[in-house]
From TrEMBL:
SUPFAM superfamilies: Nucleoside hydrolase (SSF53590). One of its GO terms (biological process) is purine nucleoside catabolic process. One of its GO terms (molecular function) is purine nucleosidase activity. This is Inosine/uridine-preferring nucleoside hydrolase. Keywords: Glycosidase, Hydrolase, Signal.
Amino acid sequence: MRRRHAAGLILALCVAASLVGCGGSDHHDAYTGAPKIVIDSDFNTMGDDGQLFAMTTQLMAQGKVNLLGLCVVTGNDWLLQEEADALKAVERMGVQDKVGVYAGANYPLQYDVASIRAQQAANPNGYFGAWMRPEPTQQSQLTPPPDGFATSTQLKSETAADFMIDTIKRYPNQVTIIEVGPPTNLATAVKKAPEIVPLIKQIVYMGGAMKVPGNANAVGELNWWFDPLAVRTLLQTSIPQAVIPLDVTNTVPLTETIFNQIVNPPTGQTAVTKAYASANAGAFASNTDLYDTLTIAYFTDPTYATQTQSAYLDIDTTAGENQGHVSVYPDAPPAGASPQKITYVTQFDNDRFFKLYVDLLTRPVPVKFQ
């Protein structure tokens, strides 16, 4: 058999392997150039955090975002439970080889258990997340997702804060933090490595209650109530920040129509729609609103927000009934408030958002990368 010239052989191999690329896969090319994000989440299987992750991985498959990692922090639940839910989520979506899970803080930067118990007693209808249940200390105490625990995916060895520091330094001025839990991990990163502050592209939060009552105590929204010192640490930086507060999420309800479109899609059920049905059964009957999922819509296209306001913000960090209360200063910041005006959303394009929401949550699973 006649020997081919080396260059000709390489060309032939590249042509033969064109479906996977020569020197890299088409998959990676589709999203590696997309806007880079890190999700920092008090994760749940298919509540708002789980929905956000499912939607984001579908957008990643389309090459619209580049999700660099999923960080978890105690908030909705205790860290150990959230880790298990997050590990299963990356397997469910089929992205365990692309998106690592990084364990973060199990407790807020500052907290007073006696005060928390008093606030729970004073606000019996409030939502206090992890503080409403015993803290698990071992695997046997965890609740499995409806489709079972992860079978092979493991936590990354790096902590969430260290992962954020390293990632922000690796991609200066390119990384947006989608902050949908108590921001303890990011505040820890900023305190540990303040040099990353000018390197963070932006933070997009779901958190806070600007001019509406809280959903934890009477004035505080859970994410910001849970660790107000972490929030204040970040508000006082120069990082560009935008907020999706309760003011707007209160106006985006989960209706029975939307629920049914997701759990009974014409294309057939998936692992996501089944988990969604299990996690959200009857939610529309209890005046449930949509929260964290609004952040990824806003990040990909800020025109989803049809009305916004900007102001200097501060938050009450003291233990007690004012914990988590956000002060809004339209004209000038007092000492301790944010040094820059921060945009917060007050109205969303619900019809347009729900089309995106239903579409992304009913797509094939595992995700299919372009």
